[in-house]
Amino acid sequence: MQNSARYLIFFQYIGTKYSGAVRVSPHQLGKKGVQDHLEDAVRKLKPINPVSLTVSSRTDTGVHALSNSAHFDLQRKNDKPPFPANVLVEALNFHLRTEQIRVTNVHHVPDDFHARFRAQSRTYVYRIALGAHHHTLFPLTDSDYCWGLHNTHLDVEAMREGAALLVGVHDFSSFRAVNSDLPWKNPVKTLDVASIQPGGSFSQAHFHREIPFWELTFTSRSFLYKQVRRMVGALVAVGQGRLSVPQLKEILELRDSLAYPQGLAAPARGLFLTRVDYREEDLQLSEQKPEE
Fold this sequence. Notes:
globular; tRNA pseudouridine(38-40) synthase activity; alpha+beta; ten-stranded mixed beta sheet; Alpha-Beta Plaits; 10 strands; PsdUridine_synth_TruA_a/b_dom; 2 domains; tRNA processing; single chain; PsdUridine_synth_TruA_C
């Protein structure tokens, strides 16, 4: 397409009001996906080509993102040149102003760039808060953005021992939920990072009591459906003494989604997609050849 440009955008969203990151099927009613709103914003720029985003990382209803990504093509009317990156950020955010979605960065990328397949890694962080039996006991900045546990203490060393078992190349079939992609997705994944570190409230300095927070961080090139939430749920069960480290190892080695204990998965609200990383060279436009 003449004067068509492919863009990679990075964007944030609060997942509570959206039915996940990707476009909602026309047959579904209710909430829209984040992709639906982003595509609506792009259409308001009046491109002459059909608008279709390819989102790098699908997140479920209720899962948040501090940095998801997507690519799309945009061709302007009357052979106008491509939008500068900063102009496109401002224009899209103007049209998204009523939504809990923000575009944070834009790159003009090569025409064959693919946001999903060129991603080198994805990082998720899961936030856990201790010592509150109801979400109303948390500050407003945290109540919908963490998993509040009754426990005032977790055996974090046991959790770290369990997390170490998950790092590396494994068949993670036991940690994926059943969905329509099940027959087509390779369950063998390489988990590069599974760490458990102290966290904090978003408004710790302005709240009347201290709440212990923990953050579980996972990095891999890709994840299976609900894999992170199921790993978190199992590790929390280890920390609570409801599951032993050898039992966690057995679940992993059984390679069967039915081996995962029912009702153990962590809720969506504590999960954040925090990074999607690319090679710098994949983002670079090649030098333009002079017209003959």
